[in-house]
Amino acid sequence: MTPKDVSASPQGIRLGFLVNLPTFSGSLSELIHALRSLELAPQEIDLYQLVRNYLHYYQQVAQESLDLATEALPYLARVIELKTRLLLPRPPQESEDEEDPLEETLEAVALLEEFEDAIQFLRQRRNQRRVLLAAAAPRPQYPRPERPIKVSISRLAELASRHRLSSYFELAVERLSMATAIKHLQARLKLLRRAVLTDLVASRDWATLAVSFAGFLELFKENKVRAKQDSAYGPIELELTAEQRRDAA
Known about the structure:
The protein is built from 11 helices and 5 strands. By secondary structure, it is mostly helical. A hairpin with an 8-residue loop joins strand 4 (225-228) and strand 5.
């Protein structure tokens, strides 16, 4: 039994897989019947060659219809697993109860028969779908409701113009710059002579405090103000230097 025994014609593929042995010729179902009725001995069947022939037959099915072969992939995986088991060496028997060769052969042939039934079922379903014609249902006629109020486009435009939103202005708060903060601190110190830094800042938000503190550092670095802080994290008291006071005067 070789791959050449499998018919390669489309008609032969549609008839199904046939087993050709010197003492037997027929389908997989007939092969199972012959094994169970003891008309054929398990030793007369080369399981590995049988599985190999069936995989060759499956390749011809895939060439005929790729969709059909794709749907049968789960069965193909089981047959490939069977072929792998047949290729592996058998482990040594630890007991006298050896596996019945008849049961092993029947299990393998039954798996191939299940694969064959799936292919035939998928082929029959595909052929049935070919003759089905999609029924075109008539389009239902729904009554179109009339408009409750008939208004022209010009009338709608006139109504919309009456309710148009009036214009409005947006006021954006200008960000405080370093130069502005320095000028503000100098102006307040000229007026108050001496004051706490936080009292010289107009706003208490975080951005204004940060820019004002940076402006104070610039004035201190340029020796334009003197600073005094009695304790850590305590208030910072500022006053103009003598030179700055003379310029202010």
